[in-house]
Amino acid sequence: MKPNSRNIVRHDGVITRTDRERLLGQRGCVVWFTGxxxxxxxxxxxxxxxxxxxxxxxVYVLDGDNVRHGLCxxxxxxxxxxxxxxxxxxxxxxxxxDTGTIVLAAFISPYREDRxxxxxxxxxxxxxxxxxxxxxxxxxxxDPKGLYAKARAGEIPEFTGIxxxxxxxxxxxxxxxxxxxxxxxxxxxxxxxxxxxxxxxxPGLES
Length: 207
Hints:
Order of helices and strands: HEHEHHEHEHHEH
Mean pLDDT: 92
Structural class: alpha/beta
Low-confidence stretches: none
Number of domains: 1
């Protein structure tokens, strides 16, 4: 979406992103968890947040349910509204990453095109797409809110995996197979990914 006025000009401050990252001793990035409802996205994001904060890292979780209470409260679940939901969240994530924060975004985000738009907003090097992969039967068995049952009964239209499509990532940075891996294994895999990509080191000191 383009600004609706030619008078809107981006303003860069004196303090740069690199300045903030050096202050924090880490590099800002967005870890984007995508997968079906019940695959474990929010659970993993919360566990990783706790794990990293204990190491003294600045981390923030953006969760799909939470943003629909405020930032995206006006949106439904049509394909168009899903796209707008992810567009808004993607730009918030990009702003947070610019502060040097490690952002953990947990969203079904079923469309590849929408996730690619977030990648473009955040920056190719700062965007890590993580596919939280669990088969449909496993996701349904976990279903704490009973959403799958409601969807199969026709009570929830356009429910991803039942009456709406999910487009799995083609080249994710990491795949977490949560019907085979436990939470601890997933957290260790994510820590390793962040270390390998240099996000847990200040700029210029990447491993």
